[in-house]
Amino acid sequence: MASIKRRDLLKLGGLGAGVTALGMTVPLGQSVSTSDWISTSAKPARFARALRVPMAITPTRMVDDYGDYLLYEITERAANLQILDAGAPATPVLGYAVGGAGPTIPGPLIKVEQNTRVRVRVTNALPTMHPTFGYGGVATSVHLHGSASLPQYDGFADDITSPGQSKDYWYPNFQGPRTLWYHDHGVHHTAQNAYSGLFAQYHLHNPWERENLPQGRFDIPLVVSDAMFARDGTLAYLDRNHSGLWGDVIMVNGVPWPYFNVERRFYRFRVLLATVSRSMNLKLVNTRTGAVLPTYVVATDGGLMVPQQVTSWRHAGAERYEIMVDFKDCRIGDTVELRNASNKNNVDYLHTGKVMQFRVTSEATDSRWNEVRTPPAEEIHPVMRATRSMARRTRDIELEHDDVTNEFLINGMSWEDIQAQSWNIFTAPGDWPRSGDVEIWRIENKSGGWFHPLHIHLVDFQILSRKGGAGRVQPWEKGPKDVVYVGEGEIVEVLVSYTMAPKTYPDGSSTGQAGLTGDRGGRYMIHCHNLAHEDHDMMGQFFVAGADGAVDLSWSHPNHPVTAAPPV
């Protein structure tokens, strides 16, 4: 009997309501109450538990034929964590762990200096069946989001590591200082794997950033996520027929609505939105006075920028905004809330307008890093100095929705199409970009009533223009980006800079190949970071040609994302 393709199966299934772990059925596009809860679990208290601040893990220093490198060994494990309040049932999660310890949510924080070679060995010790959602073979692929990695270390969706296997990922870290994050990218299960806890921050430092931006206890990673919980404490999954998942419990660093004690001074917060689908519109408000605190966006996805003072900022899934916030005008005893005004086509509940609380508890004890400084031009990504006239070509990218199959598509193609057509690309053959090229990508959202946070692997880009939607490039996004919020009916132009890894470093594979560099080109992904859209099926890929313009599409390509460095 012939096998049924995934797309045909979706057609047979139609658009019927999906049964979820909550026992609810919600047809596509129907909204649930915005004034109540959806979780059936005990309701967590707001601002009752302290924020957990991840500590950087210590690597092992190693030497090989190419010099020094740092080795990090991370294991993916299942565990039961107390996410809800004490007395409520524990929640089964998947997470990243170090040594014999259990996993944490978020996972271990990695902090490295620019131009440090890093080898991350990831071992999949997950169960063969997902403990909550029941799919078999919890295969994973680690994507270091924001890194210009070689394709075989980039977390390609089909480059999966199954339970019982390990894979080495090599990262050159040649880019400027920035907030990256690593998360699961396993094909068609990214949403549920990441939702289960497979995400963590990764910080890249350099001397200017160390000297001029808050460090240590004044440099705080904030990973914001949302979830819904069933009565037994398990994560519930309601993606509204692949439209998106919007939880009613907001968490920061794995704690529902936490508080954090601050001094009367500047802090840097590295804000990552690790939600499956939800976007936010954030601001900080002094609850005593109602005043919005002075907030400066000092870095975006791709690193440093000319600081922009804002009263609020729109934040989509996978975007990173580094903000400096000044608490000096607060009184000791004041509380400041990080609030979410939401955006169009989110689903909001009783307390999703609150994120976390800051408690001003003491005077400043350190005078360092207590002002906002503008980085010199050479510290800002060169793509921010690029102009339209430098672009070699313009590419049109259309984000669409197939109403018959209920798939989300890029230029009319799904990931299944990419696979079936021998890993083909959605741009014309012979029109490949090369490392160092600058191009304009014109991205049009034709999908109907959805916004899409679009992520392009490998590259950083400058947002040139917006037509429709916001209508203009917003102050907070005037830095180098790798995720762009594309609103409903909006056309966004971005100026893309292709920068393949220039350094020579071993690939760490069982084939014994070594010295591979980006001059051989490779394949990279583009996808929506509404992870329900990505899994169904808004993913595509593009090729970057070798330095000589040649394109090798064979499975034996030395940088092939699946075959070049397989797990063992």
Describe the protein.
The chain has 5 helices and 33 strands. With 568 residues, the chain is mainly beta. The two termini are 33 Å apart.
Summarize the structure.
By secondary structure, the chain is mainly beta.
Number of helices: 5
What would CATH call the class of the largest domain?
Mainly Beta
How many beta-strand elements? 33
* Rg over CA atoms: 22 Å
Provide the domain count: 3
Overall spatial form = globular
Main pleated sheet: 8 strands, mixed
CATH superfamily of the largest domain: Cupredoxins -  blue copper proteins
* The CATH topology of the largest domain: Immunoglobulin-like
Distance between the termini: 33 Å
Q: Residue share in helices?
A: under 10%
List descriptors.
globular, mainly beta, 568 residues, 8-stranded mixed beta sheet, 5 helices, Immunoglobulin-like, 5-stranded mixed beta sheet
